[in-house]
């Protein structure tokens, strides 16, 4: 069962303070320097065999890239993601070119590592990141037309949170994390 709890002391403040906002300050800008640092953090993430099978399509309000992404947001995410200072479409390289040969069987996992690094970097810079999948995957794939072997996985909205973190955060217990894969379904 999930229940609100405070992180124990000893957890790094960047991790303990991280949350996914549902409101962003539309006046807060993600400048070129900040964007560069976020992408650098992702670039330095570990990956299987140093394959680095991730890629990003970024767009900020007022940029043509942003305008290409917006029509593909689901209404549930468009309500808050459009106000973020940066939208990031995340891609992974699953296959070698247009074959079914796996580029890396760990590609999705490695992309997750890169996004985690980007998220912590954002937090360190006073920004917040909200990862999401509420968008038209087929439509966005047609719009962006990634190279063969590459697939869109998710999106991340980054910006200045308009509100603070919610009171308490619902998290499974450590005991649950250790037992869930072997326990009867809840």
TrEMBL record:
Domain Nitroreductase: 16-160
InterPro entries to which the protein is assigned, alphabetical: Nitroreductase, Nitroreductase-like
Ranges for region Disordered: 162-186
Protein name (database record): Nitroreductase family protein
Name of a matching Pfam family: Nitroreductase
Protein family (similarity comment): Belongs to the nitroreductase family.
Oxidoreductase listed as a keyword: yes
Keyword Oxidoreductase recorded: yes
Alphabetical UniProt keywords: Oxidoreductase
């Amino acid at each position: 069962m999930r229940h609100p709890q405070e992180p124990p002391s000893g957890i790094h403040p960047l991790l303990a303070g991280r949350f996914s906002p549902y409101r962003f300050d539309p006046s807060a800008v993600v400048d070129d320097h900040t964007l560069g640092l976020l992408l650098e953090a992702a670039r330095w993430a570990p990956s299987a065999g140093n394959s680095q099978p991730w890629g990003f399509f970024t767009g900020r309000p007022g940029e043509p890239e942003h305008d290409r992404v917006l029509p593909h947001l689901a209404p549930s995410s468009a309500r808050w993601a459009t106000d973020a200072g940066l939208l990031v479409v995340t891609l992974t390289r699953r296959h070698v070119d247009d074959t079914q040969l796996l580029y890396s069987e760990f590609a999705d996992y490695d992309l997750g590592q890169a996004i985690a690094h980007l998220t912590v970097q954002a937090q360190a810079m006073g920004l917040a990141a909200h990862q999401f999948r509420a968008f038209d995957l087929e439509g966005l794939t047609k719009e962006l037309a990634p190279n063969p072997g590459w697939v869109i996985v998710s999106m991340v909205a980054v910006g200045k949170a308009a509100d603070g973190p919610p009171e308490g955060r619902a998290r499974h217990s450590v005991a649950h994390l250790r037992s869930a894969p072997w326990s009867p379904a809840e």
